[in-house]
Amino acid sequence: MRRYKKIAEHRSRSVVDKRKSKEASRLTLHYPAFGIGRPFRYILEKFTLHRALIPFTLLIIISLAFDFINPGFLSAMNIGNMFPYISELGIIALGMTFLLTCGELDLSVGAVFGFCPIVLFIWYNDHVMGFEPAFILVLGIAALIGLTNGLLVTKLKIPSFLTTLGMMTAFQGIALYISHGFAQVTFLTESPIRTLLVGTFTIGDFGFYAGTFWFIVLMGLMYFVLNDTKFGNWISATGGNLQAARARGIHTDRVKIILFILTAVLAAFAGVIDSIRVSSAWPTAGQGYELEVIAMAVIGGTSLFGGRGSIIGTALGVILLRFISNGVILAGLPGLSYRIFVGLTILIMMTIHVLMERKIRRES
């Protein structure tokens, strides 16, 4: 009996040892040496689930790097100086995020950003009308521009790239024509709306313009709409699968038209804030902003192909690119090299997003 017991124990041990060796070989196969694979896979899974973690991680790394090069980078004064640009570009980027999620884009936002303040302050400075009605009217003009874009895209089936490219060129030319190429002064504005748009406030050692408040309010509101409302579901469904969205009864054309209007109005609103803050409205203001805000949204995890958008990610993308722009100057590098860093950041982010998409497809 003892002999049989020993044989049985020996066999059971050998089975356990074989299982352990198989488990070890499996782990060695799936995870590279030095235990790197397991944490890398864990990090990749977290980034896949929470896309905003990627720009957030890059933001921390870049902030620490620039602060190491120049200790004044993270000072209250420098951060306070950056936030006006962050809020103005951020307001446009929020609208672009909705539009990209819907599967469209708008290249005319930079032109609207420069055109609407020019019209407003020509009317105001020439005493055609007061600031308040002029402000409301230019927002209405922006809505008409967005409506035109939306109708051309949805009814005539002209690609949004071509539609908004033509609109961008047209309104850049109109802004130069009606202003004769000269800026309009804005520091003479006397209106309570001025304080609401560009008033200043402080939080501790940090000074902020009212534009920052508007950016935060709009960000919270649009986050709620995109993630917690039916309309947000319609936006994602329209960008994810247009035919399936229509089959479910979603009025996809109406959704797109509303988003084109919203994006144009937000661009005009940001342009008015910027023109009052810098005390002049320039007809060339906003040129190049269209590509920059698209980059900010994409860096934040919004898909260029529609169906997925992140408001928090876009906000982080805006801050990240502005921090890079400011850090390049404080580091003593040529200001034009900012575009190099932005281009590299976009390429890195797009590579990461493509790898994530492939991983999701394989698992599904």
Write a compact overview of the structure shown:
This protein has 15 helices and 4 strands. By secondary structure, the chain is mainly alpha-helical. The strands form 2 sheets. The protein has a two-stranded antiparallel ribbon with strand order 1-4. A two-stranded antiparallel ribbon has the order 2-3.
Describe this structure in words.
The protein has a two-stranded antiparallel sheet with strand order 1-4. It contains 15 helices and four strands. The protein is mainly alpha-helical and 364 residues long. The protein has a single domain (60-363), classed as ABC transporter involved in vitamin B12 uptake, BtuC (Orthogonal Bundle), CATH 1.10.3470. It is globular. The longest helix is centred in the first third of the chain and has 29 residues, at 2-30. The protein starts with a helix and ends with a helix. Helices cover 75% and strands 3% of the residues. A hairpin with a 2-residue loop joins strand 2 and strand 3 (206-209). The protein has helices at residues 2-30, 37-49, 53-69, 76-101, 109-125, 131-154, 160-179, 192-198, 210-228, 230-240, 242-247, 252-277, 289-299, 311-330, 338-363; strands spanning 184-185, 200-203, 206-209, 280-281.
Helix fraction, binned, reads over 70%
| Strands side by side in the biggest sheet | 1-4
Mean pLDDT: 84
Strands, count: 4
Q: Could you state the order of secondary-structure elements as H and E?
A: HHHHHHHEHEEHHHHEHHH
Oligomer: single chain
Q: In one word, what is the shape?
A: globular
Would you identify the CATH architecture?
Orthogonal Bundle
Instruction: Bin the strand percentage.
Output: under 5%
Q: Count of DSSP helices?
A: 15
Structural class: mainly alpha
> What distance lies between the first and last C-alpha atoms, to the nearest angstrom?
54 Å
Largest sheet: 2 strands, antiparallel
Question: Would you identify the regions where 5 or more consecutive residues have pLDDT less than 50?
Answer: 1-36
Number of domains: 1
The CATH class assignment is Mainly Alpha
CATH topology: ABC transporter involved in vitamin B12 uptake, BtuC
How large, in whole angstroms, is the Cα Rg? 26 Å
